[in-house]
Amino acid sequence: MDKQVHVMNHPLISHKLSIMRDKNTSVKDFRECAYEIGLLLGYEATKDLGLVDYELETPLTKMTGKKIERQVALVPILRAGLGMVDAMQDLIPAAKVGHIGLYRNEETLQPVEYYCKLPTDISERQVLVLDPMLATGGSASAAISFIKQRGAKKIKLVCIIAAPQGVEAVREAHPDVDIFCGAVDEGLNERGYIVPGLGDAGDRLFGTL
Ligand code: PRP
Ligand code: URA
Prior knowledge:
Blueprint: E1 5-7, H1 11-21, H2 27-45, E2 51-57, E3 62-68, E4 72-78, H3 85-91, E5 96-97, E6 99-104, E7 111-117, E8 126-130, E9 133-134, H4 138-149, E10 154-162, H5 164-173, E11 178-184, E12 187-188, E13 194-195, H6 201-206
Parallel strand pairs: 1-11, 4-5, 4-6, 4-8, 8-10, 9-10, 10-11
Antiparallel strand pairs: 2-3, 6-7, 12-13
Helix pairs in contact: 1-2, 2-3
The structure holds 1-O-pyrophosphono-5-O-phosphono-alpha-D-ribofuranose and uracil.
């Protein structure tokens, strides 16, 4: 993997991800682990946010403080991307949140768009596209294309598990987009599911199994 792909090898992520992968994990525990991994991925994905100086006063003296220069937009891909929004909003409370509704056609595996509402000033924001699963990469690539059509210039993709095929597809379609993920798995099965993966992320987050 080159520098466009950041795989977070961290014991906390490995531990929490194993809980998510376990088919016997409850919806509550699955959702909590998605939140906690979201925090850790968000920490990494925001490492290069620019800062500007501003003057403030502590109880003791004046000093130069720092604030984030570029505002952030979070764009979860519905549904499963919603499972990462709370963590990112807790890290960056001023972030605006756009939504892209996409589902995979079960036969063709092609993404079908059904909703898109993005912040009007998205072109000025650092965009973090959120989706726990990067499988064939069709959904993420299509979502990033929509966001670029609306003028966004700085985009990162944050996912919990990626398949090598999905990483390659996004790299090919969007070489300017860095990918942050908790793990890169072995591959895809014949139905386009990540193996070993964690199953259907949307169903496991929302209990629709
Ligand atoms: C899942 C997942 C991604 C997509 C990944 O969504 O959350 O959006 O599949 O697959 P891809 O990389 O092959 O496009 P799904 O279509 O199951 O919709 P859901 O979130 O509404 O369950
Ligand atoms: N979508 C999921 O939710 N899981 C997969 O493994 C692949 C696509």
